[in-house]
User: Fold Phytanoyl-CoA dioxygenase family protein from Oleomonas cavernae.
Amino acid sequence: MSFPAFPTRKLTDAEIQQYRDDGVIMIKGAIDRNWLDLIEAGLEQGRGDMSLLGRFMSRKVGGYQMDIFLWKRIDQIRDAIYYGPFARWAQQLMGAKEVRFFYDQMFVKEPGTDAPTPWHQDLSFWPIRGEQICSFWIPLDPVTKENSGLLYVRGSHKWPQRFKAISPDYVAAIIDEKMDDIPDINAAPEKYDLVDWNMEPGDILMFHPLTLHGSYGNASRTRRRRALALRWTGDDVTYQPSAKRMPVHFRHESAVGGPLRGAAFPRILPDCDPAERALRARPEKPMPAKMVGSLLDNARAAIRLKLSGVDSRALKQTWGKPTQG
Ligand SMILES: O=C(O)CCC(=O)C(=O)O
Assistant:
């Protein structure tokens, strides 16, 4: 068997066209049980042993557990990324030759948590730019709108606006006050082409980094909602950090304005870079100096936003209980 594994099937031309038109597609029954079990085992390990960053991200929002870069410390997640079928799908979807892994993110909402994921575009706060970027969202539990299935604004990846990045914990450091305010979509849903799916474990969402998306809290009393997002980049992507974009706390050699390079963003296709992979032989921790730098940036950003009249509380959105249908 060769790795990364080949998916159960290729994406059809119609699915790729739909991704280009709508900015999101849902593929039913895409993931074999063995890969799903591997991811679930890794995610459960991550839930029980959160990183410092994850604890920081999850501190303000009761019942909403988030963490990133799990693959740096959890073998099952790393193996799913290096050996699973995901990189080949990303390659086909993006039409790319080279595929690099950008990062993973865990999103878990406990039953009864009312914490939404505010509407946002991912690319507005990512430290990369390019056309060939996509995310896969992999639920480990059955999801509906009631227990926090994702919602998308169809076609919004083609809108000209770049919206202020509103994260679930309202992190000031990634809010760029020069960007547009996100409209209060749920206050006037009839104005938007909203789309969502009921999903089962094994289904996968593939979406463009500019497609507006978000989710309600988990109104179910019994059903936890666990998901892992995997982010991929292709040939044209460059490293474009800024004080108002998500910091990367792991080692890499990408020059500003240049292609992604190094072990934080490992190359998976057309083949692995042995030097990058060797660096992941042992679990890796984020660099403490970079973490402290991020905390200071965040404090400075909160002051800057207040002084410039952007109060992060004013950016809160209408998210009541989901309406069915
Ligand atoms: O799971 C969620 O509620 C949020 C997912 C998300 O925003 C993402 O994967 O980019």
In short: Residues 13-315 form a domain with the Jelly Rolls fold (CATH 2.60.120.620). Residues 105, 107, 117, 122, 135, 137, 148, 150, 213, 215, 227, 229 surround 2-oxoglutaric acid (CB under 6 Å). The helical segments are 13-22, 33-48, 52-57, 75-83, 86-94, 274-279, 288-307.
